[in-house]
Design a protein that fits this description.
This protein is mainly α. The protein has five helices and two strands. It has two domains: 98 residues, no CATH class; 39 residues, no CATH class. The longest helix has 21 residues.
């Protein structure tokens, strides 16, 4: 009885991956709880499908309908399609490149020298590997090609 109340009390998920994942995780947890009490989905599945479809946003219901060829939903099909929708959302999020991930590469060709006045502080000193000048190797104007070295 507590699991059935929990199904009714489930919050409506949004269309974003995180809230949908939380919704599905809670749903699966209560289904496993009913299964442990020897209540099979055949006894409550049709009612639960109706309840869940009411909770799902219209956009999500449309996406799920596109994934399924069935005229009527059963609990197993709905569960599989919800997991599939989460996977689709995860794939679409991973394919988007965020501007914050496009940072300039750090210039790592530096030498560290310890300051005599403050031994615990590290001072960066620019060092060109080609002409030993105090600039980045990419900014070197003394050596133009590898043959010049």
């Amino acid at each position: 009885m507590a699991h059935m109340r929990a199904f009714v009390a489930l919050r409506k998920p949004g269309t974003d991956r995180v809230r949908l994942r939380k919704f599905v995780d809670n749903l699966e947890s209560h289904i496993r709880g009913l299964d442990a009490l020897k209540n099979k989905p055949e006894s409550y599945g049709d009612l639960l499908v109706c309840l869940l479809l009411i909770k799902l946003p219209a956009e999500l219901r449309r996406n799920l309908a596109r994934q399924s060829d069935a005229a009527e939903w059963d609990l197993d099909t709905l569960r599989k399609n919800l997991v599939k929708e989460i996977e689709i959302l995860e794939d679409s999020e991973s394919s988007i490149t965020h501007p914050s991930s496009l940072k300039q590469p750090r210039k790592l060709n530096v030498m560290f020298s310890w300051a005599k006045s403050a031994p615990k502080e590290c001072q960066r000193k620019l060092f060109c590997a080609f002409c030993t000048g105090e600039h980045w190797p990419t900014d070197c104007t003394t050596v133009k090609t590898a043959e010049d070295t």
